[in-house]
């Protein structure tokens, strides 16, 4: 899968893209990430990519010409890619959204800055706007990093074991169950005996019950968004009592 990121600050991506899982995914050819400096398509010698807003007001607005040039240049090489703008007004990024986007041929991600982009960019080029939530950041670069990370890990082979993504929080609508590793006891806190039993059926039931309990305690609204099986309903009744 190809990710093309359009940004005014490409150096911000050096750390996240050159470490851990994303680094290995790029090296193994499972994903490709290309950074594009929007200023390279500016029309003046000063590489101006923003200007003051028509009608007055604070801040600056990203100019349409550099963004249009950047998008069209990338789109020419990747015609099947979906164009996304990181924006507070977009659809909130969720596991379901990441799954949906992971099935795209590629993503062209525009990192918004300042007071936003010229509205004509949205009308002419953007397929969808994506937000991390109801808060504002200094720019869309961190949102783009989160988007790439959440989508890339769902590309087959990126996590090493495709089963890893199946049991993530939100993968089935619930929060993930508690996880433990060695040592079996630390400062008086012991690993639950069930996890040491070797009985996989019992462990699976315990994990499902704990997942339901954790969701009920921390994010009860999620329970109303999924269809619970009869077994789930029975377990939920047990943890609610």
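Sequence proposed for the structure above (241 residues):
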């Amino acid at each position: 899968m190809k990710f093309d990121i359009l940004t005014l600050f490409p150096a911000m991506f050096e750390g996240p893209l050159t470490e851990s899982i994303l680094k290995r995914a790029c090296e193994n050819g499972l994903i490709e990430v290309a950074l594009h400096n929007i200023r390279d398509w500016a029309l003046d010698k000063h590489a101006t990519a923003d200007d003051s807003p028509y009608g007055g007001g604070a801040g600056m607005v990203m100019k349409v010409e550099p963004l249009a040039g950047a998008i069209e240049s990338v789109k020419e090489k990747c015609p099947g890619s979906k164009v996304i703008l990181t924006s507070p007004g977009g659809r909130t990024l969720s596991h379901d959204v990441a799954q949906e986007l992971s099935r795209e041929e590629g993503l062209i991600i525009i990192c918004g800055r300042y007071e936003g982009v010229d509205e004509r960019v949205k009308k002419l080029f953007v397929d969808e706007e994506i937000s991390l939530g109801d808060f504002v950041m200094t720019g869309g670069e961190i949102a783009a990093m989160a988007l790439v990370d959440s989508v890339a890990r769902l590309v087959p082979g990126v996590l090493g074991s495709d089963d890893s993504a199946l049991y993530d929080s939100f993968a089935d609508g619930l929060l993930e169950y508690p996880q433990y590793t060695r040592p079996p006891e630390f400062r008086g806190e012991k690993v639950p005996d069930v996890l040491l039993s070797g009985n996989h059926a019992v462990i699976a039931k315990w994990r499902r019950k704990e997942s339901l309990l954790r969701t009920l305690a921390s994010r009860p609204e999620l329970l109303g968004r999924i269809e619970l099986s009869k077994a789930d309903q029975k377990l939920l009744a047990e943890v609610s009592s």
